[in-house]
Amino acid sequence: GGERREKGCNSTDTTELETEFRNDDGGVSRNSSEVPLSTDNTPEVLNKALSGLSSRWKNWWVRGILTLAMITFFFIIIYLGPLVLMMIVMVVQIKCFHEIILIGYNVYHSYHLPWFRTLSWYFLLCANYFFYGETVTDTFFSLVQREEPLRILSKYHRFISFTLYLAGFCMFVLSLVKKHYRLQFYMFGWTHVTLLIVVTQSHLIIHNLFEGMIWFIVPISCVICNDIMAYMFGFFFGRTPLIKLSPKKTWEGFIGGFFATVLFGILLSYFMAGYSYFVCPVEFNNETNWFMVDCQPSELYQLQKYTLPSLLQSVIGWQTVRMYPFQIHSIALSTFASLIGPFGGFFASGFKRAFKIKDFADTIPGHGGIMDRFDCQYLMATFVNVYIASFIRGPNPTKLMQQLLALRPDQQLSVYNSLKAHLMEKEELPASREGEVSATQLELLRATVHWTLS
After folding, report:
1. φ and ψ at 22, to 5 degrees?
2. Could you tell me which PANTHER family the record lists for this protein (predicted)?
């Protein structure tokens, strides 16, 4: 019964894949030569150290050792700060894109058609220019406004982005070959779907990071925890198959991973919510020209007293608990990571089976490629971004002030008068006597005259 086990959120069964490769006469199908199976690139030192173990336990140890190495690396980049995290996200994005495009290229290349790989990377450049150009304009607003070239690029950013895309679109049309129209349009769609999956969602990951590192670390950690615990529960207790796309997925692993991940999310959130480094929004400091994570934590990260439901009171004997409000949100995040996140892995498993491959690549021994590790993360990133926009984020006074300062003085004066009238109507500001001119109005008037004359 213990033979059935988990293999993470993106496993496929090698034996079944090899069977699917075979024709009725036992030969290898044409597609298998186009998209070969991943090879075992386990370091020789590990192969020698684990040579006496069965393949099942050897795989367990290889995955475990490499998992610890990746978690250690994750801790290091967190320590290095938000800028390094953003750079790592970009590197992961490019590698994931490369792995997916390479699968298509291996098929496409057999027809000797031009420009597929070149155009794929060109569209990746265009997509990143568009998305991250928007982010740079928003995050480094003051810096952009100070520098004339940056201000011009910011003002015409979308037009430039569209022009770049049109150039790639025209190159694609010019590359069409009469006998292979259908295949070329198929690969054109392949590239754009890959951009949607990889670039868009990596962009959302960075947006989540700007809300505070806790919104980056907790969701990613929950997915990692669920992956590990589902594998562990499935490895030792798995008996009941979960889904045909991943034959080694079991209900025991799925359920065990869920409860372990929810508990892990609550505990991790409790630890992180007490540190400004993790909870403060990541903002660009115009004085130091660097990112800062320093603020007065909001109520979301301050301990509150909660009354437990009567059922829980009777079970654990406590009437109230003190916890951070963010811990309640962490339950939603960990629940999604456990119940819905794995469907990103199932989707990837279906994709790999469609092309008869075991893994996207063989970058990480025992784990496959980078995309094999991040298929669940991308789905999680979208959920977190939507969750923040729906339940967390409110108006940002800092960004609003930046936009106001970019207006002409006469426009600023108009906004000032409108805001003043609104506050006086709400009786939040005492009404000024008729004919009285405030110092602020005089200053704005002088600025308007100066701006007009200059």
Report:
1. -80, 140
2. PHOSPHATIDATE CYTIDYLYLTRANSFERASE, PHOSPHATIDATE CYTIDYLYLTRANSFERASE 2
Mean pLDDT of 67-80: 89
Binning pLDDT at 50, 70 and 90, where does residue 160 land?
A: very high
3 touches 13 (CB < 8 A): no
**What's the chain's average pLDDT?**
81
> Cα(70)–Cα(73) distance, rounded to whole angstroms?
5
Q: Does residue 415 sit in helix, strand or coil?
A: helix
Report phi then psi at 181, rounded to 5. Answer: -55, -50
Q: Kind and range of the H or E element at 346? A: helix 342-354
- Report which residue type is found at 451: W
DSSP 227-256: HHHHHHHHHHH--SEEETTEEEEEHHHHHH
Strands, DSSP E only, in 320-392?
320-323
Distance CA 269, CA 246 (A): 31
Distance CA 125, CA 117 (A): 13
Distance CA 381, CA 203 (A): 9
List pLDDT tens digits, range 297-315: 889 999 999 988 888 888 8
Task: Look at residue 311 and give its three-state secondary structure.
Answer: helix
Which burial class, exposed, middle or buried, applies to 46 when counting CB atoms under 10 A from its CB (0-12, 13-18, 19+)? Answer: middle
Is the alpha carbon torsion for 336, 338, 339, 344 positive or negative?
A: positive
List of long-range contacts for 221-224, beta carbons under 8 Å, 24+ apart: 221/264, 221/265, 221/268, 222/261, 222/264, 222/265, 222/268, 222/330, 222/333, 222/334, 222/337, 222/338, 222/341, 222/380, 223/9, 223/337, 223/341, 223/376, 223/377, 223/380, 224/71, 224/74
Would you list the domain boundaries of the chain?
54-113+177-402
The amino acid sitting at 1 is G
Helix (H, G, I), strand (E, B) or coil at 291: strand
Measure the CA angle with vertex 240, ends 238 and 243; round to 5°.
110
CB atoms closer than 10 angstroms to residue 293: 17
CA 158 to chain centre: 23
Q: Concatenated DSSP letters for 77-142?
A: HHHH-HHHHHHHHHHHHHHHHHHHHHHHHHHHGGGT-SSHHHHHHHHHHHHHHHHHHHHHHHHTHH
Number of residues that this document lists for the chain: 454
Distance CA 160, CA 136 (A): 15
Residue found by looking up tokens 């819905």 in the block:
340
Predicted structure pTM score: 0.78
pLDDT at 14 over 50: no
